[in-house]
Amino acid sequence: MTERKGTAKVDFLKKIEKEIQQKWKDEGAFEVNASDAASQKSNGKYFATFPYPYMNGRLHLGHTFSLSKCEFAVGFQKLKGKACLFPFGLHCTGMPIKACADKLKREMELYGCPPEFPDEEEEEEEDSKEEEVVIKDKAKGKKSKAAAKTGSSKYQWGIMKSLGLSDEEIVKFSEAEHWLDYFPPLAIQDLKSMGLKIDWRRSFVTTDVNPYYDSFVRWQFLTLRERNKIKFGKRYTIYSPKDGQPCMDHDRQTGEGVGPQEYTLIKMKVVEPYPVKLSGLKGKNIFLVAATLRPETMFGQTNCWVRPDMKYIGFETLNGDIFICTQRAARNMSYQGFTKINGVVPVVKELMGEDILGAPLSAPLTSYKVIYTLPMLTIKEDKGTGVVTSVPSDSPDDIAALRDLKKKQPFRAKYGIKDDMVLPFEPVPVIEIPGYGQLSAPMICDELKIQSQNDREKLVEAKERLYLKGFYEGIMLVAEFKGQKIQDVKKIIQKKMVDNGEAMIYMEPEKQVMSRSADECVVALCDQWYLDYGEETWKKQTHECLKNLETFCEETRRNFEATLDWLQEHACSRTYGLGTRLPWDEQWLIESLSDSTIYMAFYTVAHLLQGGNLRGQGESPMRIRANQMSKEVWDYIFFKTAPFPATKIPKAVLDKLKQEFEFWYPVDLRASGKDLVPNHLSYYLYNHVAMWPNQREKWPVSVRANGHLLLNSEKMSKSTGNFLTLSEAVQKFSADGMRLALADAGDTVEDANFMETMADAGILRLYTWVEWVKEMLANWDSLRSGPADTFNDRVFFSEINAGIMKTEQNYEKMMFKEALKTGFFEFQAAKDKYRELAIEGMHRDLVLQFIESQTLLLAPVCPHMCEHVWALLGKTDSIMKASWPVPGPVDEILIRSSQYLTEAAHDLRLRLKNYMAPAKGKKSNKEVPQKPSHCTIYVAKNYPPWQHITLSVLRRHYQTSGGHLPDNKNNLQ
């Protein structure tokens, strides 16, 4: 975007914002206690929460967009007279912080302090681009935030440098605890700078550094275990066969943060005639097994790929079947229950890929009775099984390779591939993707002019374009899944194939993991504690919770339903990282998706326990020690019928905590990105049902999921520079300028778009509005008084009231972009029209009503400027104590009359312009016409006969059908 000419206007806004934020702090504007709220007889309560962000970096604009939904909703509900609570915690549980700290330690051990790293060219380079686009199943795949947020630097030291830290400061981060000291205060500082309505007394950090939160999580898990929600059994984990134990991050030479990746293992049965090299295995069930991330596409299989020069093996499985794949994949499978002896691969045949080319196969789901094994030259041995199933309708790689074979007869001849193994097989429509049709892969390959399977860069681009769009927007075209979204049926199709014996679940590390003993790790089934989300009674009750949950969007509800249908077990324990230890088995830590499901209940009492001390290590306002918070004490606070415990804590004190919980619960709004629906948000529902099974009034009320945030119509990315932190955005656009652009970015679950041009325009709009208010107040005596009864007065009065009503409806539906449109853009336009048309002058009463209404309508989004204007109006109380404006009557006919006059005047101007300036290119000897001095407008008193008859028929149908217009077929009758 173009450089700004100056910063005077944004500096003006930021100066006001700092003054207003200090005013709110001094007044404790957002600190609210249950006892006070109850005594003030408010119009109910409103409790909003946002998933606490992870503390290994600064908050960015994506975080800010999601939490703005809570912020705007709280601002509106506050104006509606409700007691509002918006608390904010800071998450430190899990592996990422510990892994990063330990990585810094290793780098200093290996390379000195400050480290002197080897030249890049001396190191083994990783592929710069991942050729496989993965749609992460965030509930199963355990790729940690450390892996997701480390940026492009190879070394952790470099990543810390990129944050602007000095060598001396970086050394401190080699201790995990320092991260908890450093980033949480910065997060609070950044959040305060945007003017959030947060009760900071209730803020805290997680993990056992906070004894109160640690006690709370232990209570939760003791309760879940009592209620038989937690089991012990086999779960997938990264494992070192050489060491004979799970390989956690601190045990790894490479691959920190890498977790298991789930695949669907497709079983393609070899049918007669067998290839020569397999003829000795007649009588056995032989399968080529392909690992896919896209089971929903199996309806479109046309062939199977192997690499001619790659080594394969056939090995015997637990039930006597023979699986053909690479040795590496078989090694992984042997630790996942595929073979009779754990870790032993019973090889029955060693093969080259060329030995099985042309083998006929029977593949599940496809409409082709027999497909064939064909050569693909780009298959990698370090990923998957070395066997690839081909779906050319939806895979750019597959259509490119298939076209190569079809076009190049010598290529087929080289590998002994007959024409009837290739030429009859055409792509099968399986999925429709908006913009790419029913055969997306052929279309995008044509669009990018991909000539062969060797056009690797173009193929990577093609996959990136298709796969994410396909996952979120693709619609199935086949079988009983026709018309359903991919994200809703992916797991269901996988389960169906597994249940039918056509596929199996297979895991391998997301990327190579090497242990400190130089052993390449596998994924193994190891004993772990897990939450049994598949248990039928629990699942059924969670469905009941979902049935009454407000999701604001049907797509969000469908995503919840699909998740609850397939969700089974979730491992809740780890041996490495930060967090709370399992109370009954302290070798295990509770992982980060499991200690974050009901902490909203902790918010209700945190201020009384911790008093705003993030670590809970100061003096408790209620003089309660953390070691006094026994399970029975927590039960008494959170469970309505629990008896008073044996404790030295006075009953009056515990009753105060109990009162806070009873007043604020349930959570009225949980706002989050849509990517958390399949994991955190579903676990949130499950755990509330488990903890309060007989108190449905404590179950969540609503969940508002939003799409990802684009920046200037492009994906946010540090590597491309298209990235903004929260602090950068506030500095660049002011808090209210940023907030206005966030509200305008989007309301749906589709991707939203933060436009810097919109933020800049917002700065100008806000500045102009404040200046206009000051001008009106300065010239108050010159404004018209007396009766406000002119045509334009009455129109403006109705438009103000209509704007209030529409904006209230939009805020109620959490449609903030629409609320901004009706409550600011259109509202301002109505004022501008009134100012322009009211030749007799604007009426002071209407100007005052407009300013007050505008201030209140915009306050949830831009509270600083609205607080400032509120003070300019002479209001002694903060706008945070004001009420939503009560609209007067709306005369729709009057508004439509005004619109008609405006449109008629516009039409006359256009006619006059065209009359005075004839169209170019027409030769004419006529003189330029004289400008008309007046115009005659003819107004029909009655509709033409044909319109009168039509309206009469429609009116009759409308009245007899209960207020519904008939369809065209009935109209014709």
Describe it for me?
There is one protein chain. It contains 31 helices and 27 strands. By secondary structure, the chain is an alpha+beta fold. Among the domains are: 260-509, Isoleucyl-tRNA Synthetase, domain 2 (Alpha-Beta Complex); 783-895, Isoleucyl-tRNA Synthetase, Domain 1 (Orthogonal Bundle), CATH 1.10.730; 940-972, no CATH class. Strands 6, 7, 8, 9, 10, 11, 12, 13, 14 and 17 form a 10-stranded mixed sheet that branches. A 4-stranded parallel sheet has the order 2-1-23-24, covered by helices on one side. β3 and β4 (245-246) form a beta hairpin. α19 packs across α20 (651-664). The protein is globular, with a radius of gyration of 33 Å. Residues 121-152 have low confidence and may be disordered.
